[in-house]
Amino acid sequence: KEKSNNLGVKDAGSEMETEEKGMEEESTRESDSNILDVSSDYPREKHISIQRHLADLEKLANLKEDEKKPCPLCPEEKFKACYSHKLHRHLQNLHWKVSVEFEGYRMCICHLACHPVKPNLVGDQTFSKMGAHYHCIICSATITRRTDMIGHINRHVNKGETESRFITVPAPRSSHEVLKELATDVQVLPNYSTPQKTDSYFNPKMKLNRQLIFCALAVLAEERKPIECLDAFGATGIMGLQWAKHLRSSVKVTINDCNENSVTMIQENCHLNKMKVKLNTKEDDNDEALGDGEENTDTIEVTKMDANVIMHLRSFDFIHLDPYGTSVNYLDSAFRNVRNLGIVSLTSTDTSSLYAKAQHVALRHYGCNIVRTEYYKELAARIVIAAVTRAAARCNKGIEVLLAVALEHFVLVVVRVLRGPSPADNSAKKIRYLIHCQWCEERIFQREGNMVEENPYQQLPCDCHGSMPGKTAVVLGPLWSGALFNTGFLRRMLFEAVQYGLDEAQPLLKTLVCEAECTTSKHFATHSPCDENKQEECGVYIKTPNNSAESYLVPGKRKSDEVIRNAAKRQKAENSAEHPAFYYNIHRHSIKGMNMPKLNKFLCYLSEAGYRVSRTHFDPMGVRTNAPLAQFKMILMKYSTPTYTGGQAEGPLHRAEDVQAGEQVEAAADGKVEDAEFPEDDKSGVAAAVFTKDYPARCAAD
Hints:
Blueprint: H1 5-36, E1 50-51, H2 54-61, H3 84-96, E2 100-102, E3 105-107, H4 124-129, E4 134-135, E5 142-143, H5 146-158, E6 177-181, E7 184-188, H6 207-223, E8 227-231, H7 238-247, E9 251-256, H8 260-272, E10 276-279, E11 299-303, H9 307-313, E12 318-321, H10 331-336, E13 343-348, H11 351-354, H12 359-366, H13 376-394, E14 397-406, E15 411-419, H14 421-428, E16 431-437, E17 443-445, H15 464-467, E18 473-480, H16 487-499, H17 505-517, E19 533-537, E20 540-544, H18 557-576, E21 584-585, E22 594-595, H19 599-608, E23 613-615, E24 622-625, H20 629-638, E25 641-642, H21 656-669, H22 686-689, H23 695-701
Parallel strand pairs: 8-9, 8-12, 9-11, 10-11, 12-13
Antiparallel strand pairs: 1-3, 2-3, 4-5, 6-7, 13-15, 14-15, 16-17, 16-18, 19-20, 21-24, 22-25, 23-24
Helix pairs in contact: 6-7, 6-16, 13-14, 16-17
């Protein structure tokens, strides 16, 4: 308090040093006590580096315009006292911007003597190297790097540790989060999206998968009531809850999981949706009922068993398998006791092996040799169906594939079970090997029979083996060679999707119907099934559009019977016409130096040429057709336009010059180069770069 300026500065400096030393000692004692008392349950005060707002951090510094103040998070050796405007920039840029946020709090970087010093640092290096660290808001740890601090907080969240020991809150917030899907509420943990670290795994990206399975179950519920259905891997129970909530008395739902925490979560979610819960006990008194006026049909049975055990002990009409990864370990149990004409659906999420990224895993799990091809998603679906067929055949059961979908995150297969050795033999005969040309991506299933062929390359439509050096083809499989879709079942699934308002599943089901019929037609019948007649499909009388033969009736009993018989034969032939196997990617087979036509126009060109054609859900740029690859490329070449250079704009598709160039391309492709006349001032470069006799082989090499 001396009036002399020098004495005042010295006294202020000494007071600041003593205050800083005291602050450092207090922070050091606090950090040491935090490390010792990690297991304490009572709340403690948070560290000064943990604040909600930048203004709270500035209050610690007690900023004043006419006084120099030190930084509360830096020692004086690192940052000397300064005026308020400079200290504000320092707190904002050096501490606040590099902070880590968690539940509204900011863990700012701290340079105080809280972190232990490395023994090899002496002198001035101590203050420059040791200071930067973060204080964890949940535990007493001090982390040096920001990325490590973020990972440290994420590990706390994955373990469910979200309550801080250093923040005094009036009431701890619940760690459960409620999600809603298809008018069904489910409680999930904060780490619900990490399957390895949670018991209640819930993936919002699988919503489309759950809607497709719901439609399949709704179709089966229309055939016979009531049906017993099993969700073998319940997790949160979202799928079984949707079945019971919307289908009501048509289904008897059983949700199973082998994890005790998941079973508890399923029971809580049943109570949340006002459903009765029946535990897996023999005493009926233990049944727990919630909700006013609920009937017995709204009861959901929750079991805690291994999936293989419950499928061995009980019989079901509908079984869904959705394990984490491959489902081959549960196929034998699923087909052991499933009822005749029941449905088994399975979701495989091991896409790394099925999509040929881990080929050795596919060989180990499915016994298939595969390579990466342009049709790898359909290849994955046929691999899974082949494994399902072998498992069903071991139980003297055959299958009929109703639906096969392969998208980015999963492969879904839905099959109907046909009991008896004859259906089992017929299904097993459809498992074959595939010959795949690695030059042009042509493919064909091997012929039936056990005789060894002298030259298997003769089965391929292409001649790459004769024009290319070395071995050009590989054998893939064994794979399912039959149909992947059932048109009647898909149409009924589409009708159920419209009835229940499943907007995400409707576009995919429309694409699947077109793909099953191999047509580009966009007309779908979603009318009520009351106006439809019954027809037999795999031993089950189902409802199909009324294509009755009454319109063909003419006077005369014998003639009328003959017309009806012919109409039935014609309808049976149309239903048995399977869609072509696999598809071609239009970008993969585009001609270099040419602009290919639009995909929809190209489909029309193939259809006008007399081939069956449709788009496919496996690939947005894929074309499913029964045209050979050579004809596919020829039509693509015919309707492609040259790529103009020199900044000229691309012309329309049907200009006179382009039509002439298309005719020249077709003539050159037929090997009649001498008949193809090219103008001398041809600036497109087509005559020099494209029209040669060996063009198809060079195109395949490209």
